[in-house]
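Hi team,

As requested, here is the filled-out complex form for the magnesium ion run. I kept the field names the same as last time so the parser does not choke. Let me know if anything looks off before we queue the next batch.

— J.
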Amino acid sequence: MKNFDDLLQETKEYGVVSEVKFPIIKCVGLPSVRPDDLVIFETGQHGYVTSLTQENVEIVTFSREIVKPGVRVVRTGERLSIPVNEKFLGKVVTPLIEPIFDDDLEITDDVERRPVDIEPIKIDRRVRITRQMFTGVSLVDVMLPLGKGQRELVVGDRQTGKTWALLNFMKTQVELGSIVVYALIGKEKTEIARMRDFLTKSGMMQNVIILATSADDSPSLITLTPYSAMTMAEYFRDKQKDVLVILDDLTTHAMYHREISLLAMRFPGRDSYPGDVFFKHARLLERAGNYDVQGKEAAITCLSVAGTINNRLTGYIVSNLIGITDGHLLFDTELFNRGQRPAIDLFLSVTRVGKQTQNKVARGLNRDMMMMMSRYEEALDFSHFGAELSDEKKTLLARGEKVLHFFQQKHTLIVPHSVQVLLLTMIYDEHFDDVESAEIIRRRDVLIEKYSSDDSIRKEINDLMNNAKDFDEYRSKVKTFQTYLNQLWQQQS
Ligand code: ATP
Ligand code: MG
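And here is what came back:
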């Protein structure tokens, strides 16, 4: 990039810093500067123009070093942009694509650059969401399915396992060949390092880019993180790849955005957030979607995290985000404390687009299972009164219990979709009525092992699901498959 002196010669104009309220810097001069232009200070720091008034130019700096009044500043004539390239896969970088952990990251001049904040693509290049985005988590894939191109909120109190569940989703998507762009927004340095180590150890890093800012970074750099992540994702989308973008988290993002706005003396609105915070998030998330890229579908699926306090979904930022996204997975503290992993509340979570992407069998299972589980909830409330329960209710309670137990899984376990559907159908029908929950989990693990090592059984289980006309036909086919499965489970016990 050009330095201060070159640019001064080239543009023949400069401004002088008149007031500093870190990270906001006001300066006078620079007559031809435009909003969003990148500027360079005499002392080496970079910044970009956020607004222009008659008297001065307002600049936000990315650097932690303070710029003093009197320092000169020049414009570069360029918009705020970042380099985008495949070679950033496997790297941990700042939103300006500078390495965080001394990676060797050489960015040559021929690397494409793209602006970080762009207008979302209009409807004409978007296509209907028809492909399911598998997460490997049975609870999500069967009951709360997500589509490729969907925007889903991952919401819950602190320390309820949101990040861990996302790691599971990431692992599944990497194995299925997607690219993952993970934005860590204003996190602790140690968390960033932990994330990198985990991803490296589990062999996922070659398909992942981490864009991270830590709490010590400048607030303006922190607020840039999700935009850069989206720009990076768009690059891969334009290469016809499916991308999963994770923004962890947008409530922190909004807080830093508020900090900058208050310092810039913008008029505060509800909870002191600036009035444009909804617009900012909507414009950002609107960039996700399913696109037609030169005749091939490529999707940017966006999972954004939002933190709540005491499970309240009515906070300003969280309710905004609920309005912008196509549903939410609610992580519940009480479920977490009871030991459920992942602690997703089946009844209060929502998915608006995903169901249309499920195959006929899974959709039927989803519908019938949802009805069964709400009857289970009712029966559970009823049983608290100590009332005498009919045999039918007892069976329902036992099956519901087994379903919830089945949904428990370690964050490193990926359950193949056809195995999820097969075993849940077996719980839904009477096949597992005499089998303990722990034994069902053992059988699941045996089956997953067999599924991944034996091509013929994998084909058989997949065909069973894919060739069935509907859920009812599938159920009757599962009955005929039962003997084979029982043999398998007996052999392995
Ligand atoms: P924060 O809001 O602070 O970012 P979070 O909701 O992202 O928190 P995590 O960091 O994902 O929470 O999880 C908190 C802790 O819960 C983890 O450190 C881990 O010990 C435990 N945990 C979460 N999910 C699982 C799981 N599936 N299996 C085992 N342990 C888990
Ligand atoms: Mg987290």
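Two things worth flagging: The chain has three domains: 4-78, 83-358, 361-491. The mean pLDDT is 93.

Thanks,
J.
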